[in-house]
Design a protein that fits this description.
With 259 residues, this protein is α/β, with parallel strands linked by helices. The chain folds into two domains: 154 residues, NAD(P)-binding Rossmann-like Domain (Rossmann fold), CATH 3.40.50; 93 residues, ProC C-terminal domain-like fold. It contains eleven helices and eight strands. An eight-stranded mixed sheet has the order 3-2-1-4-5-6-7-8, with helices on both faces. α6 links the parallel β7 and β8. α7 packs across α11. The longest helix is centred in the C-terminal third of the chain and has 28 residues. The two termini are 39 Å apart.
Length: 259
């Protein structure tokens, strides 16, 4: 069994680690972590994850080192542990840091892969992008694919598509939560209790996504199958089109990429 170590245990890293443990892929005791915010580490103790005193200890105790810090501090963090990372396997979730960038930051003996996960991994419904170009061994790459497959779906993505892929699967959960909230608000306005409205909206979003994945039908076909001539659904569709829903989502992806 490999040992996983997390340098940084923010919301995304917590979702990944929680998913790995709850899926049964790896016991919590085989995961260690360090974060400046001790409360984040305390929160993960319920999953058996071992809190360590600094990043150096994490690297020493781990076969795979997950770099999960903010982009603005990643270079200083890597510089501090660069010597420790020699000969190690690194998995990074840091936005904007791809294979080429890490080649300039890490020792040549450090093998590395950039991934773009999302927070639904905490409930094993995640979407993780794995950069096509990497320097992990075949066995290491297979292990990471298995790990992320245990908490959702994976896609090996060409390097030039990692940015837009990350904007779609990484940022869009926030947009979907807004959709759920807005749909529920509409039902609440018509008299439905909020908890019931959230359940109906969330399950509808979940079921609709699964139906598209299972059938592989174009979303437009699935939409047409629900919209009867002159019916209530087509009136709702018109209201959304009048409000510029499509343009709003397209613009959201564009803005997510233009940091």
């Amino acid at each position: 069994m490999y040992k996983f170590g997390f340098v940084g245990m923010g919301n995304m890293a917590s979702a990944i680690a929680q998913g790995f443990v709850e899926s049964g892929f790896i016991p919590g005791k085989e995961i260690c972590a360090y974060d400046l915010n001790k409360a984040q580490l305390d929160k993960m103790s319920s999953f058996g994850i071992v809190a360590l005193n600094d990043a150096h200890e994490v690297v020493k105790e781990s076969d795979f080192v997950f770099l999960c810090v903010k982009p603005q501090v990643i270079e200083s963090v890597v510089a501090d542990i660069k010597e420790d990372l020699k000969g190690k396997a690194v998995v990074s979730i840091v936005l904007g840091y791809d294979f080429d960038k890490y080649n300039t930051l890490l020792d040549a003996s450090t093998r590395h892969l950039t991934v773009m996960p999302n927070t639904p991994m905490a409930v094993r419904e995640g979407m993780c992008l794995l950069e096509q170009t990497h320097s992990l061994t075949d066995e290491e790459f297979s292990t990471i694919k298995d790990a992320f497959s245990s908490v959702g779906e994976i896609e090996v993505v060409p390097n030039h598509l990692m940015g837009v892929g990350g904007a779609l699967s990484g940022c869009a959960p926030a947009y979907i939560y807004m959709v759920i909230e807005a749909l529920a608000d509409g039902a609440v306005m018509q008299g439905m209790p909020r908890k019931m409205a959230y359940k109906l909206a969330s399950q509808t979003v979940l079921g609709s996504g699964k139906m598209q994945l299972k059938t592989d039908l174009h979303p437009g076909i699935l939409k047409d199958n629900v919209t009867s001539p002159g019916g209530s659904t087509i009136r709702g569709v018109k209201a959304l089109e009048d409000a510029g829903m499509r343009s709003a989502f397209i613009n959201a992806i564009e803005k997510s990429m233009n940091k």
